[in-house]
């Protein structure tokens, strides 16, 4: 019997609803594969602010460090949107990423045949799309200094953030990009804004240099504006994309939407060592929170990513992913992926049919 300690961070909005489904899934596959999951839960984001005044309590970070994997649902909500930045839910998430050194964020956007009609794009554009966005997660303009709002000599205020990348920061994410491409279609597209930004030219130069070590990977470069356009114009040209923190934030949402709903996409955030964080790409959806309308499948697929990337249980991950395909095949849909002739279900019911399929 393998033992794993899993930290659960349900967070805000729809977080607790989708986390409940994910935990049920882990329990079921745990029984089947003889894995013992010990769950420990901690507050992050808005619920943590309400309970402790801080979006990432020290105990939460410690608990995460002290586990084999961290499952995060989502953070944020209207209630906390106007607090000072250091007390915002987002600051807690960024603190978690920084605190665990999670520099590599893998966001797969793979179109499922069952959901082609849920996409806002034409079938021939999206069918067979299978993209992995490798987003740098602990650097760039999200973390660069100086940052803040400063008063200038004339007394006028000025908001400042700094986009900065050091050699080592670029190299380590580039390596994840190249290695990911090697395991996939062998194509890596690096996205930057080298026509305008020094930091991006530097990024491009480093990636080009490192490419010599990966002769089996076909490297290309795109400016971010063009990449955004190409993603909706002809997404099949992409295999693996590697990019900085801000560009990755934006492009991964766009890539997600190709697949029909951001409610389907999981992600893995990994560091050089220590536990990774596995979370859906979507947010806390406060508009539908508590109404049993959320799609739990991105959270469930995040469980699969945790099993694959952190717990080295690829067979269990396969089983969960197949289960998700099967419930879609059977026609079950939450509102975000609903299309004509399908069976509309809520979050809980989606969980139940999935458990049934997994129990077979
Ligand atoms: C994401 C989110 C976060 C980000 C926010 C909530 C801080 O949009 O994970 O993509 O910008 O990284
Ligand atoms: Mg985002």
Textual characterization of the structure:
By secondary structure, the protein is an alpha/beta fold. Helix content is 40%, strand content 21%. It has 12 helices and 14 strands. Strands 2-1-3-12-11-4-5-10-8-9 form a 10-stranded mixed sheet, with helices on both faces. It has a two-stranded antiparallel ribbon with strand order 6-7. Strands 13-14 form a two-stranded parallel sheet. The model has no long low-confidence stretch (mean pLDDT 96). Bound molecules: 3-isopropylmalic acid and magnesium ion (MG). 3-isopropylmalic acid (IPM) binds next to α4. Magnesium ion (MG) binds next to α9.
Q: Give the CATH H-level superfamily of the largest domain.
A: Isopropylmalate Dehydrogenase
Can you summarize the main beta sheet? 10 strands, mixed
Number of strands: 14
Give the mean pLDDT: 96
Using only CA atoms, what is the Rg?
20 Å
Helical percent range? 40-55%
> What compounds are bound to the protein?
3-isopropylmalic acid, magnesium ion
For the record, the count of structural domains works out to 2
In the CATH hierarchy, the architecture of the largest domain is 3-Layer(aba) Sandwich
Summarize the structure.
The protein is α/β, with parallel strands linked by helices and 360 residues long. The chain has helices spanning 15-33, 46-52, 58-65, 89-99, 123-126, 167-183, 198-210, 224-233, 245-258, 297-309, 314-329, 347-359; strands at 2-11, 35-41, 69-74, 104-110, 130-136, 148-151, 157-160, 187-192, 218-223, 240-243, 266-270, 277-280, 332-333, 343-344.
């Amino acid at each position: 019997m393998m033992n794993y300690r899993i930290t659960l961070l349900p967070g805000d909005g729809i977080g607790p609803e989708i986390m409940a489904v994910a935990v049920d899934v882990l329990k079921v596959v745990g029984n089947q594969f003889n894995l013992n999951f010990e769950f420990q839960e901690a507050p992050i984001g808005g619920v943590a602010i309400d309970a402790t005044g801080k979006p990432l309590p020290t105990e939460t970070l410690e608990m995460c460090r002290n586990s084999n994997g961290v499952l995060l649902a989502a953070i944020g909500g209207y209630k906390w949107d106007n607090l000072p930045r250091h007390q915002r839910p987002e600051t807690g998430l960024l603190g978690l990423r920084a605190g665990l050194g999670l520099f590599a964020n893998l966001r797969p956007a793979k179109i499922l045949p069952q959901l082609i009609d849920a996409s806002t794009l034409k079938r021939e554009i999206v069918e067979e799309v299978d993209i992995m966005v490798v987003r740098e997660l602990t650097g760039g303009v999200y973390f660069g200094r100086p940052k803040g709002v400063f008063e200038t000599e004339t007394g006028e205020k000025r908001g400042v953030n700094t986009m900065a990348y050091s050699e080592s920061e670029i190299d380590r994410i580039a390596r994840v990009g190249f290695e990911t491409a090697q395991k996939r279609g062998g194509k890596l597209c690096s996205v930057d804004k080298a026509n305008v930004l020094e930091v991006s030219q530097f990024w491009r130069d480093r990636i080009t240099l490192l490419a010599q070590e990966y002769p089996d990977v076909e490297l290309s470069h795109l400016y971010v504006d063009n990449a955004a356009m190409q993603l909706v114009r002809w997404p099949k040209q992409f295999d693996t994309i590697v990019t900085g923190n801000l560009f990755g934030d934006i492009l991964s949402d766009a890539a997600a939407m190709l697949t029909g709903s951001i409610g389907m996409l999981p992600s893995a955030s990994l560091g050089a060592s220590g536990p990774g964080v596995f979370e859906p790409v979507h947010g806390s959806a406060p508009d539908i929170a508590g109404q049993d309308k959320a799609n739990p499948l991105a959270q469930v697929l995040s469980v699969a990513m945790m099993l694959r990337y952190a717990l080295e249980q690829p067979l269990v991950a396969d089983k969960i992913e197949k289960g998700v395909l099967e419930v879609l095949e059977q026609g079950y849909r939450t509102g975000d992926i609903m299309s004509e002739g399908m069976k509309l279900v809520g979050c809980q019911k989606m969980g139940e049919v999935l458990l049934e399929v997994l129990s077979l």
